Amino acid sequence: MDQFCVAFPKGSVVCAAGDYLICCHSGEERKIYRVEDLLLVKRLLPSLNDPSTLLIEEHTLDSMSPAYGSEVQLLLTAVDPEFAGEPTALPAIHLQTPTERAKGLLRPARDFTEPDCTVVRRATTP
């Protein structure tokens, strides 16, 4: 089995499954996401002979880089409500009061930059 390391993109937040992200991409409201998992994505292409058979893109290319190649993706759950600021969002996260709005969101880690997002680490028990 091949093993290799993949780094978070430069300038993006570093997070793990179970962490929360408090983000302000535009406007004043802070959106909260729960990190479900960290993933690498491989694009599938239909076979020319049988469109119901899917091929992994990187195995079919000879000179091009595959789409999303070695790019860290975040599998997220968006939660409600949105908050006016980080000081009001933090207690809600710690008390587990936000409700799930959308599960299964796949977003590139590069979209979650340090200036725009804060990581709230998952609580660990001894």
Put the structure in a nutshell.
With 126 residues, the chain is mainly beta. The protein has helices spanning 57-60, 86-94; strands at residues 20-23, 30-39, 44-46, 54-56, 73-83, 99-108, 117-120. It is built from 2 helices and 7 strands.
Number of strands: 7
Into how many domains do the coordinates divide?
A: 1
Q: Name the beta content range.
A: 35-45%
**Nearest-angstrom radius of gyration?**
18 Å
SSE run:
EEEEHEHEE
Spatial arrangement of strands, main beta sheet: 6-5-2-1-7
Integer average pLDDT: 86
Percent helix: 10-25%
User: Major sheet: size, sense and barrel closure?
Assistant: 5 strands, antiparallel
List the total number of helices: 2
What does this structure look like?
The structure is a single chain. By secondary structure, the chain is mainly beta. The protein has one domain. The protein contains two helices and seven strands, in the order ββββαβαββ. A five-stranded antiparallel beta sheet has the order 6-5-2-1-7. A two-stranded antiparallel ribbon has the order 3-4. A hairpin with a 7-residue loop joins strand 3 and strand 4. The longest helix has 9 residues, at 86-94. The protein starts with 19 loop residues before the first strand and ends in a 6-residue tail after the last strand. 16% of the residues are buried. The model has no long low-confidence stretch (mean pLDDT 86).
List keywords for this structure.
126 residues, mainly beta, 5-stranded antiparallel sheet, two-stranded antiparallel sheet, 7 strands
What is the fold's blueprint, element by element?
Elements: E1 20-23, E2 30-39, E3 44-46, E4 54-56, H1 57-60, E5 73-83, H2 86-94, E6 99-108, E7 117-120
Antiparallel strand pairs: 1-2, 1-7, 2-5, 3-4, 5-6
